[in-house]
Amino acid sequence: MTATTTSAPSNAIGEVPSFQVTIMVRRYNPEVDGEAKWQDFDLTMYGTDRVLDALHKIKWEHDGSLSFRRSCAHGVCGSDAMRINGRNRLACKTLLKDLDLSQPIYVEPIKGLEVEKDLIVDMNPFYQAYRDIKPFLIASDSPDRERLQSAENRERFDDTTKCILCAACTTSCPVFWTDGQYFGPAAIVNAHRFIFDSRDEAAQVRLDILNDREGVWRCRTTFNCTEACPRGIQVTKAIAEVKNALLRGRP
Ligand code: SF4
Ligand code: FES
Q1: pLDDT tens, residue by residue, 113-171
Q2: Structure letter (DSSP) for residue 90
Q3: 135 and 111 in one domain?
Q4: Which range marks the domain in which residue 168 is found?
């Protein structure tokens, strides 16, 4: 057999192309600033970088006072939801190269929750709504082995088990923006997860909670929540199923 030779590619093997990008960050320090303002940073970034990498670069190399939450950096912990070019996304799951790099990239805090500093918002109202729907299994018996469930019954609430409590859905909802009392999509998603669990005995308790004037009936079916969810959860469908359960009982 004759050995073949190929000419070397122009890029070195493994080389990741770099590019210039301008990141506009909404800055706010309540101890100093009267109001929030935009600050721009020109960065050299790489094809594998995400918005979170750009924020790290700003914090570590340009301005250590920039404040934002993150933990896992892999789309699991839900702590870095923010508005990127006007859309709620996780900074760690948003590749820079997928955005329009000919324009500045705008990064600001999620809406509807009080800004504590820069990209950090007060998540307490969000978590309180989550706590209010009793996000835990409620059952009267105490079996000495696991509670069995058919694959069909498990499938019933599979989608809503995927929630990572990032708040991207709730803070993309126009009803939540105008009325901070609304439970919001994330709380309803997590109620759905237990309402449709055949092992749980408190579906009616949660349905009564969500039948409140600030509950599911505030939903205007705008689908912002479904579009915002980084886990691909059919949020609007889950809300509709809870509404149906209220009208017709749990199927
Ligand atoms: S439903 Fe989706 S967008 Fe809403 S909190 Fe859960 S993971 Fe985040
Ligand atoms: S840092 Fe954990 S989800 Fe983005």
Answers
A1: 999 999 999 999 999 999 999 999 999 999 999 999 999 999 999 999 999 999 999 99
A2: E
A3: no
A4: 124-139+150-248
- Would you say residue 154 lies in a domain? yes
Which of 127, 158, 165 has most ligand 1 atoms within 8 Å of its beta carbon, as the pocket-test mutant?
A: 165
In a domain, residue 7? The reply is: no
Separation of CA 181 and ligand 2 centre (Å): 26
**What secondary structure does DSSP assign to 4-36, as a single string?**
---PPPSSPTTPPPEEEEEEEEEE--TTT-SS-
Question: Nearest-CA neighbor of 245 among 158, 142, 156, 171?
Answer: 156
Least reliable range by pLDDT among 4-13, 23-32, 67-76, 198-207: 4-13
Domain containing residue 72: CATH number: 3.10.20.30
pTM of the model: 0.92
